[in-house]
Write a structure and sequence with these properties.
412 residues, alpha+beta, Beta-lactamase, six-stranded mixed β-sheet, three-stranded antiparallel β-sheet, 18 strands, 30% helix, globular
């Protein structure tokens, strides 16, 4: 399992210093066994909870260049889990890359981005009341994706990119074990999700780019049907005593998510994504910015608390200490909780990458809203992040990392 990652992404990982993976390491499991009150139930029923974990240690050389060593628990890239909002992360990366590829004068992430409607299920967007100027843009959509995991923002970027563009681009980069094939929170057909809206961009009042409606010509469906659970609630709120069909849902293997994040946090000489330094700086800000630090929109802190989109180390805590920053993307749906994070402690000069997924659906019924997020999911994420963090506090390093590039200015 661990060796296959370097095979899939050889062209990418060779651009950075990568230590050999140790097949006999059980570090993650051992860290959990030190806290039986938090993890014994998970360890005893890891298949029921579909837990997968990847923990990457980071060591710097004298020039502050990173080397990585990864440890795994129960990872299986062939096991399906619903990735929920984690699909927004690569779509955000690709949206910035596409703007760079287009290379059109006056077109950038702040350009006015208007979405038209030309097919069944499509809706138009010509304004955005949450933006300071009242107008939609790629920048504002990405900001909302990372700060509060906004679904509509993701949908608009999906429409700008197109289904085939998203999947082909990621496959070409070596991220092959994935499919991103639908919008979120909108019950559309396969054909409706293949069609993506016409879009227009403006610099001031001047048009700078127009893209017609696009239809994907490729088929990204899995070869085998994916059925889970014993029952589900359908779109008419009726309980159906049959498994829920995930065959036509999005999917990204945890290893892919983990490596995508690493490639953006630590871009090598041949980076996976074609981004300018200003793009990286922009991403770092909003991947780590908290809702209370955000203007336009000014989020209600009672609803959008610090850990609203920061599960690892903090679960559903109200507050996160100022000296800790988490650059991440979470997902939550159908009983799945996922977090994919780069965690930094400026006070203690600690940094590490940690990705995890857990499934909490005890009654094996989907769409009924009855999931054990509060009792099992959030506590697991909090304890897992804390266990790894506490270990990192004691881990010896040859060189103290210079983390200054991740000390950022936020909206407020």
């Amino acid at each position: 399992m661990k060796k296959c990652i370097s095979l899939i992404l050889t062209a990418l990982v060779l651009t950075q210093c990568q230590r050999p993976l140790k097949e006999d390491e059980h570090l993650v499991e051992n860290l959990m066994r030190r806290r039986p009150e938090a993890f014994q139930e998970i360890l005893d029923h890891k298949e029921k909870y579909e837990v997968q974990i990847i923990y990457t240690q980071i060591d710097r050389d004298e020039r502050n260049q990173p080397a990585f060593e990864s440890f795994y628990f129960n990872t299986d890239s062939s096991r399906y889990f619903y990735p929920a909002s984690t699909v927004k992360m690569p779509v955000a990366f690709l949206a910035l890359e596409k703007l760079n590829e287009l290379g059109t004068d006056g077109l950038d992430r702040y350009s006015t981005f208007l979405t038209d409607s030309a097919w069944s299920g499509q809706t138009a967007v010509f304004e955005d009341s949450t933006a300071e100027n009242g107008l939609p843009s790629v920048a504002h959509y990405i900001k909302k994706i990372f700060v509060v995991s906004d679904n509509d923002a993701y949908n608009r970027l999906y429409e700008f990119l197109g289904q085939q563009y998203i999947n082909q681009k990621l496959h070409d980069k070596g991220f092959e074990n994935l499919r991103i094939i639908h919008r979120l929170s909108i019950p559309l057909s396969l054909e409706e999700n293949q069609h993506t809206n016409p879009v227009r961009f403006y610099h001031g009042n001047s048009p700078v780019y127009a893209q017609p409606m696009v239809k994907s010509a490729a088929d990204y469906q899995p070869t085998a049907q994916i059925l889970k659970g014993r029952a589900h609630v359908n779109h008419r709120d009726s309980l159906i005593q049959q498994p829920f069909d995930f065959t036509y849902k999005n999917f990204i293997a945890l290893e892919e998510l983990h490596l995508m994040l690493r490639e953006v946090i630590f871009p090598g000489k041949k980076p996976a994504f074609d981004l300018a330094q200003a793009d990286y700086d922009f991403l770092y800000q909003y991947m780590s910015q908290l809702p209370r630090e955000t203007t336009w929109p000014d989020y209600d802190q009672k609803e959008y608390y610090d850990a609203y989109c920061k599960y690892l180390m903090f679960g559903d805590d109200r507050n996160i200490p100022d000296h800790i920053r988490i650059f991440n993307k979470i997902g939550q749906a159908y009983g799945y909780l996922i977090d994919n994070a780069y965690i930094v402690d400026f006070q203690n000069n600690v940094e590490f990458l940690l990705s995890a997924v857990i499934h909490v659906n005890d009654n094996e019924t989907y769409n009924d809203g009855n999931y054990e997020y509060e009792t099992i999911g959030y506590p697991f994420m909090k304890e897992l992040g804390s266990a790894v963090y506490d270990y990192e506090l004691t881990r010896k390093r040859s060189n103290i990392p210079d983390l200054s590039k991740f000390k950022l200015a936020y909206d407020k």
